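As a warm-up, study this chain.
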Amino acid sequence: MISLIIPTLQEEKLLPSFLGQFDRELLERHNVEVVISDGGSTDDTVRIAREWGAVVIQHAEPRRQTIAEGRNVGASAAKGDVLVFLNADVRVSDMALFFRRVRQALNTDGISGATAEVQVFPEEERFSDRVFHLWHNAYVRFLNAIGEGMGRGECQALTREMFERVGGYNPAMVAGEDYDLFRRVRKHGRIVMLPEVVIYESPRRFRKYGYTHIVWGWTRNALAVIFRNSSSSEEWEAVR
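Now compare it with the structure written out below.
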């Protein structure tokens, strides 16, 4: 079984369209479950997820849950032997192809994890989005080619066995937890980009902060992961 694990927090605006891309017959044919790991939303996120029929886990403690914790909790509740972590503000170019490519990749000897090319929603894409994502997708391919291990949290796929072998996401990391996970996973095999699969993401964070600010934040967190095994960010703002 493939378990799609989606951490959420105040995602009532985009969650309906995210869940709407999953056809019931398609999920049954590919033996897929959808797990929503909610970090304590006070809007309609949990109601929407339950009415849709997803497996829902809620964080009930008063402290803020990191997205790494949310993903780990979702993985604990999931039934699948394959774990795919997606964000709630993404769409997959071709879902049937996506499921096939995930299984093909993770059934291949020497491959320990998979990710996919990321682009902005076509209807919201600007020239700057196209240029940035062209560069960043090439950068991800380069890091994986030299053995660094990289894949954005928008899409990370690996077997449960591999996830448990490396100890899952570092729950203390506020940011950079996706990079940290795949750096450890890379020690056990190659990380590949799923061929012909595109993950479309909302540009909401890029619109609010701009690419310079975001790249600087990613760089600081990546350096903190490499040299301090931690993140430089003390809190990750939910942009909704």
